[in-house]
Amino acid sequence: MKLKILPPTLRPNYRYLILDIKSEKPLSKNELISAIWEASIHLYGELEISNFNLWLMRFFDGKDNIFKYEENVNNFFYYKAVLRCQRNFEEKVRNSLTMLYRYKGKKIAISTIGKSGTVKSAVNKFINPLNK
After folding, report:
1. Domain assignment present for 51
2. What integer pLDDT is reported at residue 61 of this predicted model?
3. What is the CATH number for 33?
4. CA atoms within 13 A on the CB side of 73
């Protein structure tokens, strides 16, 4: 018996937040994921963030030449990422990210550059706007 796919009207709608990350020390993708979850849990709790459906779609550390990357400028490391969340929860996710300023002894600052409906348009519009 073949499994049926949910029709588009029953699927959850997602939005993609483009993050600009500045860290005092090098940061890996897994450390960023746990930092985002920790900040969200501290602000809203597990019950509320289960509605967010957070997922880190892409993590750009500058080694793949997607965006202009200058390592260790002013003693900081710069990264960009695409974070998926469910529609209508974007502001709560942004609020939890602003509360994050330190993770495991590392200073970290996360700001949201923009919001998009697809990953492809998010990367083309906000991360590498010159490569259209």
Report:
1. yes
2. 82
3. 3.30.70.3250
4. 8
List Cβ<8 Å contacts ≥24 apart for 34-40. Answer: 34/103, 35/100, 35/103, 35/108, 36/83, 36/96, 36/97, 36/100, 36/110, 38/100, 38/103, 39/96, 39/97, 39/99, 39/100, 40/93, 40/96
62: containing domain: 14-127
Q: How confident is the model at residue 37, as a pLDDT?
A: 94
Residue-wise pLDDT for 28-78, tens only, equals 999 999 999 999 999 999 999 999 999 999 998 866 655 555 555 677 888
Number of domains the chain contains: 1
